[in-house]
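Quick one: sequence plus flavin mononucleotide SMILES, need structure tokens.
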Amino acid sequence: MSKKVLLMNGSARKKNTWGILQQLVQILKNHGIEGEILNLFDYRIEDCTGCESCVSHSGCSIEDDMPVLMQKIMEADGVILSSPVYMGSVTSKFKTFADRLSRWIHKPETAGKPVMFVSTTMATGLKETRQFFEAFATGFGARKGGFISRAGKAINTPVKDKELSRFLTLLGEDTASYRPAMGEIVMFAVGKAMASKSSGDDRRFWEEKEWFNKSYYYPCKMGPGKKLFSKLMFKVISNAMR
Ligand SMILES: Cc1cc2nc3c(=O)[nH]c(=O)nc-3n(C[C@H](O)[C@H](O)[C@H](O)COP(=O)(O)O)c2cc1C
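Reply:
Sure thing.
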């Protein structure tokens, strides 16, 4: 069965960012991979109200299209997240979508999924937008597959196959080949510390996954130094938490 990649467009327009996604679908097709573009603006995504029921329980108190989107992400072999730069960051639609995924910071059900990012801009904000995307994906334990961007006069520069090489490699590899970066190990330790302090659903989730004894979400390429670092970070972070 061929792999499937979900490409999420955070722009209301089907223009610059969407144009890149369309090229990516074609490149993926050339590699025998199915791509489906999904426009966030076609879905009802309400603001997070901060009720924290996704932390204390497993569900969300808001009824809208988020469960549909989350199910699609779960089922995809890889995800491409995209947004134009709006006021130096992602669009408000994308930010609302990200807020509503905060359950996966506490319960990273999609850990290990390959994720790539796309952004377009008139001139500024690509660095900040990339940082936003990467922090968001690190929180979910995703394997990061790169960033494609276009700006100003170069907005229509065609996407080259090699811009997807890291993402394609991750799609073809299993998680055992992955070498988590220090920042990713720190986020694992943060999640573990939060779950260890939780009296509710987060602890149940981490126990079920048997992650409390682990140095990372899944077996991967981590030497003894990184394993020790993960355990030390957990101790330091949990001591600093309430
Ligand atoms: C509300 C709004 C805010 C924007 N903010 C920025 C910005 O901070 N920096 C910038 O260089 N371009 C900014 N732009 C330009 C867009 O990032 C750029 O045109 C982008 O390619 C649009 O992508 P789209 O065609 O996929 O919607 C902004 C555009 C809009 C409508």
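The domain at 4-173 is CATH 3.40.50.360 (Rossmann fold). Residues 108 and 140 are 5 Å apart (CA to CA).
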